[in-house]
Fold this protein.
Amino acid sequence: MITAAIARLKAETTLTDVLAAEDLEALSSGVMPRNRTAYVLPFRENAEPSPYSTGTFRQSVEVYFLVAFFIRRYDDPRGDGRVTEFEATRDEIEGALAGWQWDEQEELVALVATQASASLGKGTSVFVSTWKTTRTVESK
């Protein structure tokens, strides 16, 4: 599912790059990525009980994932340019993911929340959105 979200963002946006990552804290404390680079990270999964007591095992799992993107502008001490660029980038990501169905048997992807960080210094801010969909676990 993470791979599908990355492919969707690469195909439907003008982001500089879209990559997979595992640790949001490591992203914000390491080498700062290029402007408008996004990362897709796994977040949380909640499984529902299987509705079948015998035979086929089928379980629906709520999947939450994060999309973090970086805005870098060195010529913007107050941050108003970063805010404008944030809004445009956020809108592009939302346009690509909101209502998209990554698998025909799963729920549509929906936005849960967005969190803006304080500046990370050196003209860089990170913004993180949480998304929700489902996946299915089945035994054969």
